[in-house]
UniProtKB/TrEMBL annotation:
The keyword Membrane applies. Keywords: Membrane, Nucleotidyltransferase, Transferase, Transmembrane, Transmembrane helix. Residues 290-420 form the GGDEF domain. The chain crosses the membrane at residues 12-34, 143-165. Its cofactor is Mg(2+). This is diguanylate cyclase. Signal peptide: none annotated. SUPFAM superfamilies: Nucleotide cyclase. GO terms for cellular component: plasma membrane. Pfam families: GGDEF (PF00990). It comes from Marinomonas aquimarina.
Length: 457
């Protein structure tokens, strides 16, 4: 019967607590009461002494009568809790002058039961006994009612507890135990089925275990949070390093792209880049129906520069000439080194007249320039062509190259325009045929600029 055991257990504990409290209370009461009685008895005795001395002093020679009056007073005060049991007045030689009550044996006055009291300035001595010993008195008069009261209370308490346990506490405990069973991690069989206390202990152990698990989980969570923070810091640092590296790579990429697209000597676009841009501009021009012109610029008699001033000076002149071309064209066109001492200039939105004007300005600027310390003068021949409506990039290039060839043939240092009629005339021929002509013409020949074989036809 585990339930009854539990009830008994609780009852026992409560009663034990109550008894312990009662014992402490009684102990305190005994000490307090004892002190009170001692003080009271001392008071009474002192009063008796004073009264007897006064009686003897007021009625000398008639002590017996005075003492009889005193005895009456004593009898009246017998109801006092510490009253005297007997009183004897002893003469100088120790004989009993007066004894109350009369039954007190004279011999008894000498026994140790009597307390001998001195009477001030008198030859008499007072011998008294008290009705109880001090402890007896304390127990009889003070403790007995208290003990009775406590026992009564205890009984009432036990009855009350028994009632409460049966009515309410048992139900509360039952539901508490049911809740506990929800967290039971052990096999039910392992519990002591016949002992509620055993079960309670088991559950308490389980709770302690659960508590430990919760604490260790909280600790693990803290550790996890710390490691996460460390990981985040690490990731941030790595990300920052990666971003930095990425930026470096982007810069390097840009530099690489510039290197790949730039002519290393003259720092203008190289032929590869020009081919791409040329194709794009031709496509755009056709799509938007906007004009597009090209200049092929070739330095005249450059071989002579090399021969006379050396190849290195020739390099410097080439570089400077490219700079002049780039300066003159500005942002309006695309300048590229076509190869050797020849440059190509792409002029989007330039019609033939405007392109011719630009070519003339360019030719004049180079003719005017003085290169190197030796103030070398050079001239240029320029072939100009505008993209025809039906023309391909290759066909445009061919016409510009023809114009340049003409400029050379006519004595150099001049601008020759490739007429649009020429382009139309060529287009009137079969397209396939022209392409074949272009391919043949584009093969590099001595003294002639190369025509890109990569360009789209
Ligand atoms: N210094 C230097 N010379 C170059 C470079 N590329 C080509 N040349 C020279 O340019 C000269 C081209 O000679 P040619 O094809 O006969 O042309 P040209 O002397 O300019 O005569 P025309 O074009 O007919 O006016 C050659 O001497 C090449 O060595 C270069 O990068 N640096």
């Amino acid at each position: 019967m585990p339930r009854r055991s539990a009830v008994q257990f609780i009852l026992t504990k409560v009663v034990a607590c109550y008894i312990a409290m009662a014992v402490v209370l009684l102990g305190g009461l005994i000490i307090w009461s004892y002190q009170q009685v001692v003080a009271h008895r001392a008071d009474m005795t002192a009063q008796l002494q004073t009264s007897v001395v006064e009686a003897i002093t007021q009625a000398p020679g008639n002590e017996q009568q005075a003492l009889q009056w005193l005895t009456l007073g004593i009898q009246l005060s017998e109801s006092d809790s510490v009253a005297f049991q007997s009183i004897a007045l002893l003469g100088e030689d120790g004989h009993v002058v007066f004894a109350w009550p009369s039954s007190v044996e004279l011999a008894a006055t000498a026994s140790s039961a009597f307390n001998l009291l001195d009477l001030q300035n008198s030859s008499f001595t007072l011998a008294v006994t008290y009705s109880d010993t001090l402890l007896e008195h304390v127990f009889k008069h003070d403790l007995l009612p208290v003990i009775a009261l406590l026992v009564g209370q205890l009984m009432v308490l036990m009855l009350l507890l028994n009632y409460l346990v049966k009515r309410g506490i048992y139900r509360t405990f039952s539901s508490f135990m049911r809740e506990l069973s929800m967290v039971n991690l052990r096999q039910p069989a392992a519990l002591q089925a016949d002992s509620f206390l055993g079960q309670f202990k088991e559950y308490r152990q389980v709770l302690v275990g659960v508590n430990r698990v919760i604490l260790s989980l909280a600790k693990s969570r803290e550790q996890l949070a710390e490691s996460n923070q460390g990981l985040e810091r690490h990731i941030h640092a790595k990300t920052a390093a990666l971003e930095e590296r990425n930026e470096e790579l982007l810069i390097l990429n840009k530099q690489l792209s510039i290197i790949a697209n730039t002519d290393s000597l003259t720092q203008v676009y190289n032929r590869t880049r020009f081919d791409v841009l040329f194709k794009e501009h031709v496509t755009l021009s056709k799509r938007r129906a906007t004009p597009l012109a090209i200049l092929l610029v070739d330095l005249d008699d450059f071989k002579k520069v090399n021969d006379r001033f050396g190849h290195q000076t020739g390099d410097h002149v080439l570089k400077h000439a490219a700079h002049v071309i780039q300066r003159e064209i500005g942002a309006e066109g695309v300048v590229a080194r076509w190869g050797g001492e020849e440059f190509a200039v792409l002029l989007p939105y330039f019609d033939l007249a405007k392109a011719e004007e630009q070519a003339e300005t360019l030719r004049a600027a180079i003719a005017k320039a003085r290169f190197e310390e030796q103030a070398i003068k050079i001239t240029t021949s320029i072939g100009v062509a505008q993209l025809g409506e039906q023309e391909t990039a290759g066909q445009l290039l061919k016409r510009a190259d023809d114009a340049l060839y003409d400029a050379k043939g006519l004595g150099r240092n001049r601008v020759i325009i490739a007429s649009l009629e020429q382009s139309h005339t060529q287009l009137e021929l079969a397209d396939g045929e022209f392409i074949e002509v272009l391919d043949v013409a584009s093969e590099p020949t001595q003294g002639e600029p190369e025509v890109s074989e990569k360009l789209p036809t």
